[in-house]
Write a structure and sequence with these properties.
The structure holds two protein chains of two kinds. Chain A is an alpha+beta fold. Chain A is 30% helix and 17% strand. In chain A, strands 1, 2, 3, 4, 5 and 6 form a six-stranded antiparallel beta sheet that branches. In chain B, strands 1, 2, 3, 4, 5 and 6 form a six-stranded antiparallel beta sheet that branches. By secondary structure, chain B is an alpha+beta fold. Chains A and B meet through helix 3 of A and helix 3 of B.
Chain lengths: 218, 219
């Protein structure tokens, strides 16, 4: 979706202000927000792409007015409400009011290190890729109302395949419970001038990891 | 600029909820906001395009949280501060503290009706013949200026057809930055919706926009 998360080329936010000695967490609740999000992910009630879509579909004014972990928590609450893991009344009272729903997975404190080290790989057995290194491709001019990893600023532009990453879960499908639908994932390189109309330096390039169905032969 | 005002194609705002018997103003202060903005425009300290740019420069999170007249007032505060018509201290206190700056124009209550009726035409005498005629195919430029532009993001890099010539008009991209009116031919350009969005509900759906000549290249 062309939501508030799709910031490439958007202006007016002012300069980025790097923070000296930036702490991992700015407040104790952020630590808890990270832990809660990981633990709830372990219930397997949703996948990473569903959770990304929960965040990007927050109302734009709210999204842009929220800090990183505020966005995480707002997305998590949406997911838990949608899956019946919590009720509106429980969220506002902070007290459990209905019996816990049975879930498929549980993250125990003793498993955290192993679970985090293992991660959630999205690579799948290889399929036959349509494109090879050096092929010229054009990104589709598509505007789905659903999740996509093709940013708006890279649509309808010509680029070159510079790397094949194998076959990966397709987020556009997986974010909507329509299955993993794995497909080839490529790094595509675009001349900055093609993307933005002009470039500071003629050799400036923008590279992005894009799934096969975002691409057409150019 | 690719700012928060450029909403074409953006999603996630939820459905539009039309208001039954919508009043012209929702609050008394909105009436005043409109009057103040019109009154201050008559000072001649800025142009219409400068005031639009002041509005679109509001930080995105703030802009998208604001009502229509909140945006107007915030933009006006930016303009009157920049023009030296008011100081931050005066804004905070609500009291005049420095002497009034002499301005070129003043809107008197008695003139209001005639001034509003007259409007502020942006047509100008032609300085050069228009480059395109109706029926010409053009491509909009893939441009991303930091400054003001009336070419929306969703219409950049697309092929359309000139469907009307409106004469010569002030060029907002120049006028918004104090670089003069630089009048240019203004056209209506019609695009097929499929060309703009990749797909269209109906193959004959089109989008038309009024675009200045410098936004266009021959296609």
């Amino acid at each position: 979706m062309n939501g508030p998360q799709d910031l490439g080329g958007q202006m007016g936010f002012g300069p980025v202000a790097p923070e000296k000695d930036e702490p991992i967490f700015h407040a104790p609740w952020e630590k808890k927000a990270l832990a809660l999000t990981l633990a709830m992910g372990a219930t397997r009630e949703w996948n990473i792409d569903i959770s990304r879509h929960a965040r990007e579909s927050l109302p734009p004014a709210q999204y842009l007015g929220s800090s990183y972990y505020e966005i995480w928590i707002a997305g998590l609450i949406k997911l838990m409400l949608a899956k019946g893991l919590v009720t509106e009344a429980e969220v506002s009272s902070g007290k459990m009011a209905v019996p816990a729903k049975k879930v498929a997975g549980k993250l125990l404190a003793s498993n955290v290190t192993t679970a985090l080290a293992k991660g959630g790989p999205s690579s799948r057995p290889d399929t036959v890729p349509r494109y090879k290194m050096g092929d010229k491709v054009r990104t589709r001019n598509m505007h789905p109302v659903t999740h996509t990893r093709l940013p708006r600023y890279l649509r309808g532009h010509q680029g070159e395949i510079v790397r094949l990453h194998g076959t990966h879960v397709f987020p556009d499908s997986n974010a909507h419970g329509k299955g993993e639908a794995p497909q080839a994932l490529y790094t595509v390189r675009f001349a900055a001038r093609d993307v933005w109309g002009e470039a500071r330096h003629p050799k400036d390039a923008v590279s992005a990891d894009l799934w096969e169905s975002y691409l057409e032969p150019a | 600029m690719n700012g928060p005002h450029d909403l074409g194609g953006r999603m996630g705002f939820g459905p539009i909820a039309p208001e039954k018997d919508e009043p012209v103003f929702h609050e008394d202060w909105e009436r005043r906001a409109m009057a103040l903005t019109s009154g201050m425009d008559s000072t001649g300290e800025w142009t219409l395009d400068m005031s639009r740019h002041a509005n679109e420069r509001i930080p995105p999170a703030q802009y998208l949280s604001m009502s229509y007249y909140e945006i107007w007032i915030t933009g006006l505060v930016d303009l009157i501060t920049t023009a030296g018509l008011v100081t931050n201290e005066e804004l905070a206190s609500g009291q005049m503290m420095a002497s009034a700056k002499k301005v070129a124009g003043k809107l008197m209550a008695a003139e209001l009706a005639s001034v509003l009726a007259k409007g502020d035409p942006v047509t100008r005498p032609a300085t050069r013949p228009p480059r395109y005629t109706p029926g010409d195919k053009v491509r909009t430029r893939n441009m991303h200026p930091q400054g003001h532009t009336r070419l929306p993001l969703y219409l950049r890099g697309h092929v359309g057809e000139i469907t009307r010539l409106h004469g010569t008009h002030i060029f907002p991209d120049s006028n918004a930055h104090g670089r003069g009116e630089d009048p240019r031919p203004l056209y209506t350009v019609t695009f097929s919706a499929g060309e703009v969005w990749g797909t269209a509900r109906h193959p004959q759906d089109t989008i038309s926009a009024d675009l200045w000549e410098p936004y266009l290249e021959p296609a």
